[in-house]
Design goal:
The complex is a heterodimer of chains A (209) and B (181). Chain A contains eleven helices and no strands. Chain A is an all-alpha fold and 209 residues long. By secondary structure, chain B is mainly α. Chain B has two domains: 43 residues, no CATH class; 136 residues, no CATH class. In chain B, 81% of the residues lie in helices and 0% in strands. The model of chain B has no long low-confidence stretch (mean pLDDT 89). Classes of the chains: A mainly alpha (209), B mainly alpha (181). Chains A and B meet through helix 1, helix 2, helix 6, helix 7 and helix 8 of A and helix 1, helix 2, helix 3, helix 6 and helix 7 of B.
Chain lengths: 209, 181
Amino acid sequence: MLNYVWLGLIVIALITAAINGKVPDVGTAAIAGAKTGVDISLGLIGIMALWLGIMRIAQEAGLINILARAIKPITKRLFKEIPHDHPAIGAMILNISANWLGLGNAATPFGIKAMEEMQKLNKSDDTASNSQVLFLAINTASITLIPATVIGVRVSAGSNDPFAIIGTTIFASASATVVGVSVALLLQKLPVFKKTDPALQANSEQESA
Amino acid sequence: MSEIFRESIKTLSDWAIPLLLVVIPLLAHFKKVKVYETFVEGAKEGFDVAVRIIPYLVAILAAIAMFRASGAMNLFVTALSPVTELIGMPAEILPAAIMRPLSGSGTLGIVTELINTHGADSFIGYLASTIYGSTETTFYVLAVYFGAVGIKKTRHAVPAGLIADTAGILAAVFICRLVFG
């Protein structure tokens, strides 16, 4: 899927640019985009190190397991592949709570940790498991209780009520989350995606062997 | 009332990170964890993870930058405008909605411009603000999270993410018309 999206973006870009006479701009933009990618990644090093350090402390102290157990009723339904006391669940909860509080910087390292823990359970090196796709869907929808950035923009634009959009934002992002989770759970049942499910593939290999 | 609300939100934002940074090690210390050594062990992974993400992020961001620079956005806006009229979304909002899954900074740019042009407390201002907060940047999240663990075959992640984004934007239009319309 990403193959088509990626190819589609760059092919449409070139064709449109040719029509609009913007071909040189597209070349410059590609190089600038590549540089942004590196800048963002390298900029993450410090934040990653800080939160992964804290995360390890929380894990050693058993705090992650406590969190995982607290939310077990929900996670055992959604993430069937993951044992309920697995560290992946704890990392997910930290990620989701950080997102709720609008702490994007902290949410990313926790989310990556959760992905790494789920990867330990994944039978494939390069194919996403159902749990990983579901977790990604939750994160792309991402409920935020305090959309700090846009509140900042509203304040500087002289809004009389910069916080007026908190309620509507929570409603919109909660709707996106519900739909994202439902769609991820539905799509994983479609034959085309079931065929590539790493968990099922490993099983069928064992059966035939 | 709104003053109290504003103050408590600000206090929560100010305190959340420092509190987490202190409370977790403190609790761990009482549980006999060697906090400094454990921190350093965990933090070591930070560099590797950040470097591992680079190729994925470069691939996505270069493609999106090319797409934006070509003016292809206008094509999409033209193609989709009959649909948005039907659901009662002002035409001015459409670029922000299309940009939302592709680029966070791009969307913020469009939203800021809309707020400055139409006013933060106009319907368009409210809707643009809500759309910005309604979803995350799907392709960025995909590149970072799957990149960190080397997942290349994303299966149903792209359709699920994009359908969630669409739902978020439709929900934003619905609720803003209800509350501010």
